[in-house]
Amino acid sequence: MKYQILATVTVLTIFSRMAIVQAANPEDLQQLLATKNCQKCDLSNAGLILANLSGANLTGANLTGANLSRSNLTGADLRGANLTGASLYGVNLMGAKFAGANLTGADLRDTYLTNTEFTGVDLSTANLLGATGIPLKAASSDQFYAWGLAEANKGNLQPAIDYFSQAIAIKPDYARAYLARGVASYQKLDRQSALEDALMAQKLFTEQKDPKGVLTAKAFVKELKTPFKEVVSAGSPSFVDFFNSLSSALLEFFP
Predict the structure, then answer these.
(1) Where are the alpha helices (DSSP H) in the chain?
(2) Orientation of helix 157-170 relative to helix 141-153, angle to 10°
(3) In angstroms, how far is CA 120 from the centroid of its own chain?
(4) DSSP string over 211-235
(5) Which CATH code for domain 1-139?
(6) Virtual CA dihedral for 14, 64, 105, 132, nearest 10 degrees?
(7) Segment 154-187, tens digit of pLDDT
(8) How many helices (H) and strands (E) does the chain have?
(9) Selection from 104, 43, 46, 98 nearest residue 75 by Cα
(10) Domain locations in the chain?
């Protein structure tokens, strides 16, 4: 009897999950793929991987949980659409319109966002790691800083520097972003840029009365002003010794 109950529950669970996955209205899905015009359509949990939806009209559509990974949505109109939990991983969104859309928990990693409109959109819970062309108004300085740290931790130094630069563009007195960008530049063996950022970080930490920041920036400046006695590389003893000696202090700025 127990096994029969267990089997029944298992079957019901499978069917309930299938119902969730196939929640998109088949007629709406067919209309979208045939005409690229599907205003206020029910496309929740739809599978639209690699779909060519450039210029599509999806205003007010329900795309909750939809999988649009690697699709083409250049110039698409998604104003007022519900994209809660949707996957837009690697999607080309250049010129797309999202004014008033709901992107809560949406996956926007590695997307292309040049000239994308995000008026009135809250991106605080969206994952924008690796996205290119993020408008400055679309995120806070702290978000750009966090994305920079994430890229730096993966060894992606140029993307990290770009994110730190965007954080600084929003908040010109962001001492931590200057320090982080300086460290990333140093790891790229660009000592001049690193020194400029380290000096700016030291100045800002001093003005902001942050003693830990001042000490860390000073140590960094001292290292940068000390000539190398050997051919420099990212794995050279001088480079490694510096980061080992400064690691505990840097942890304050690289959580």
Answers:
(1) 2-21, 26-35, 141-153, 157-170, 175-187, 191-207, 211-225, 237-250
(2) 170
(3) 19
(4) HHHHHHHHHHHHHHHSPPSS---TT
(5) 2.160.20.80
(6) 120
(7) 888 998 999 999 999 999 999 999 999 999 999 8
(8) 8, 0
(9) 98
(10) 1-139, 141-250
- Find the mean pLDDT for residues 57-81: 97
Report pTM.
0.68
Report the alpha-carbon distance of residue 94 to residue 98 in Å, rounded.
11
At 95 the pLDDT is 96
The whole-number pLDDT of residue 228 equals 61
- Size of the chain, expressed as the number of residues it contains: 255
* Contacting residues for 39 by C-beta, under 8 A, at least 6 apart: 57, 58, 59, 60, 61
67: three-class secondary structure by DSSP: strand
Beta-bridge mates of residue 77:
57, 97
Taking residues 198-213, what's their average pLDDT? 94
Extract the tokens encoding 172: 């010109």
- Taking every pair of Cα atoms in the chain, the longest distance, rounded to a whole number of angstroms, is 80
* 124 C-beta neighbours (distance < 10 Å), count: 11
CATH topology of domain 141-250: 1.25.40
Dump pLDDT digits (tens) for 137-148.
Answer: 778 899 889 888
Distance (Å, rounded) from C-alpha 243 to C-alpha 255? 15
